[in-house]
């Protein structure tokens, strides 16, 4: 596919390099400076516009004419063989999206999450008790980063935490970009739906005080959501509610321990944890490359470039979060940064539903680590950490630590 209005030779091959750790390829900074709405050849499906500046991405994310749904389940230009559009809310048509978001957003408000906080703290401390009892070294991915958000989202939804090994396997397949074949992913999606149907049937027979029961009631009584939508919602929240936070938490701790003076700073001033979490969200990239593709449903002007109806647009949130025109000393990690309008949770209609929950989990985890494990350090050199490859979100495979 060629683009009629891209100057010859200006199409770049994407992604730039293959970094999936804490770093971003320098090409993003070059694009922000000189070609912020860049024409790129995506690894799958042809060409797209890549946005790299904070202002452009904020504007584009809030523009309903750039539609995730229009690219869902279609062979549009994208960073991975398949996208996130088949998981959860993201790829739903705008009317259903708004209706379903309203239905579940009550469970994720700042107030509701504040009520959950004592329980999040209790789970966190329980995990740290386990670490202390067994002694180091230990893998912080398996011992904290993964089990904490998993236990919390399981309790909220009403899925037994003991099932984590079962739905972890589905998560890995559904959040993979290239690690599994199309066939394997399709099979995993089918099995995941069957697995969830089992709980829907069980909870319908025995309702409890959980989100799954509330959604079943909404389905059965108000017809506010279809059976398929129910599965998509619950399935998306179970996966989205633990995989992203786990990758971020492990990445945050890796960044703090890579240069231990950062961990020391937090240890000495734990009151900085909330601002430190925002800074870590800003600098630790979420996606391996870019998130879901949007398709222009009509001509849209972004950053002085006209995106024609039907064209694909992708955003680098990580690049936006390092935009020098927005963040002072954007390349530095400033744990007490006060002006920090990062967009790690996105923006606009798809703004992360779980942001208050993720923040609470990340804050509880860091607070507990710096107060209870003051001597925490990496048990291997930072450059020997292995990072997930072939997955949509970043994160270390293991985070060996001692204390
Ligand atoms: C640190 C952890 C997390 C990060 C960085 C994160 C980031 C994001 C981002 C960037 C988006 C928007 C994607 C886009 O517009 O292209 C998003 C959407 C979403 N997130 Fe999160 N997320 C996190 C944790 C969570 C948690 C704990 C939940 C809990 C259920 C969650 C549920 C969702 C849902 C349901 C959406 C789709 C919203 C919609 O389409 O309306 N996320 N997240």
TrEMBL record:
Any single Pfam family the record assigns to this protein: p450
InterPro entries: Cyt_P450 (IPR001128), Cyt_P450_B (IPR002397), Cyt_P450_CS (IPR017972), Cyt_P450_sf (IPR036396)
Keywords: Heme, Iron, Metal-binding, Monooxygenase, Oxidoreductase
Keyword Mitochondrion found: no
Gene3D superfamilies: Cytochrome P450
Family label: Belongs to the cytochrome P450 family.
Cited PANTHER family: CYTOCHROME P450 YJIB-RELATED (PTHR46696:SF1), P450, PUTATIVE (EUROFUNG)-RELATED (PTHR46696)
Name of the protein in question: Cytochrome P450
Organism: Streptomyces cirratus
Source species taxonomy: Bacteria, Bacillati, Actinomycetota, Actinomycetes, Kitasatosporales
